[in-house]
Design brief:
alpha/beta, D-Maltodextrin-Binding Protein, domain 2, globular
């Protein structure tokens, strides 16, 4: 009798698990997470383990598809014109909004009619880094150098219009100094040039810059988060140094084609949130310096995206910048 009860209980558990999977499985087709960048970058490194966990939790198949080029336009256009049935999502980022602020006629903007925000995936603070051994050992020394240079100091950007670019503009506005943006094809060459002394400073993501800091080639002066990072507890935030506007980070989020059914979007948002609570994902995000993922409603993420768009548009307006 006990054995029969045990078998019955196990069957009920399996049925409940199958039911949960069935509720989340809005399609039997593979689901593509499209990234507007090449393989190996920060977003790609986050997307692949996240896709694996989402596949395990839902019983569906999530795959990562890289579509780089055109400063994200190729990926955005592909998803905007893709099937609105929950089989394709765009993994966008703050860079899409900073570029939109600089280029008002940007094709397929994230805040336009082609997309619906689904879920925030991660927020990674940026490090303010300089070449080690230059005597610029803190933010005050960097500010003094910037203010005393008639031509301004230089800072690298992975591409024009991205967050690094706007972070430099905001920093220059905050300290009342001139700074010159030097564009690169990605963060890697910018970091190498900074370590070689070709540029003065860089506002780069923590995963990209931290290796150079730990090797002693670069010095971290500050972090752009609201609070200090557990990875660099001795490095102050720019906020605590009085630069309130410099609370910023490289965030990533999922977006769906606008005509995707609301029920599918809600199911996808719930699955993203569930995957972000997975212990392995939490551990990996912590190692990369990302803020700890917390459950967030789809509406809250949509409000956040709109607020970010307005923030960077205002920053560009104040700086008097415009890119045709």
């Amino acid at each position: 009798m006990r054995l029969a009860h045990s078998i019955a209980a196990a069957a009920l558990c399996l049925a409940a698990a199958a039911s949960a999977i069935a509720q989340e499985a809005w399609t039997e087709q593979p689901i593509r997470l499209v990234i507007p960048a090449s393989a190996g970058g920060s977003m790609d490194q986050m997307a692949r383990p996240l896709a694996a966990v989402m596949s395990r939790l839902s019983g569906q198949t999530f795959i990562v598809e890289n579509r780089s080029g055109g400063a994200g336009v190729l990926a955005r256009e592909f998803v905007a014109h893709g099937p609105a049935d929950g089989t394709v999502f765009l993994l966008g980022s703050v860079h899409e909004l900073t570029r939109m602020a600089l280029t008002p006629n940007l094709s397929f903007p994230l805040t336009g009619p082609d997309f619906v925000p689904v879920a925030k995936i991660a927020t990674v603070p940026n490090l303010v880094v300089v070449k080690a051994g230059t005597g610029v050992d803190n933010v005050d020394a960097l500010v003094a150098k910037a203010r005393s240079s008639p031509k301004g100091i230089s800072y690298g950007v992975g591409s024009l219009g991205n967050l690094q670019h706007l972070a430099g503009i905001t920093f220059a506005q905050s300290i009342g100094a001139h700074m010159v943006a030097i564009p690169y094809k990605g963060s890697a060459p910018a970091l190498k040039d900074l370590a070689g002394g070709q540029i003065d400073v860089l506002f780069d993501t923590m995963p990209a810059a931290s290796a150079f800091v730990r090797e002693g080639r670069l010095r971290a002066l500050a972090v752009t988060a609201a609070n200090r990072s557990p990875l660099f507890p001795d490095v102050p935030t720019l906020k605590e140094l009085g630069l309130e506007r410099m609370v910023l980070g490289t965030w990533y989020g999922a977006f769906a084609p606008a005509k995707t059914p609301a029920r599918t979007i809600e199911a996808a948002a719930a699955l993203f949130s569930k995957a972000l609570m997975d212990p392995e994902i939490q551990r990996m995000w912590q190692e990369w310096g990302s803020e700890k993922p917390v459950p967030q409603s789809r509406t809250a993420f949509a409000d956040f995206v709109q607020a970010e768009a307005q923030r960077w548009q205002e920053a560009v307006r104040q700086a008097g910048l415009k890119v045709e």
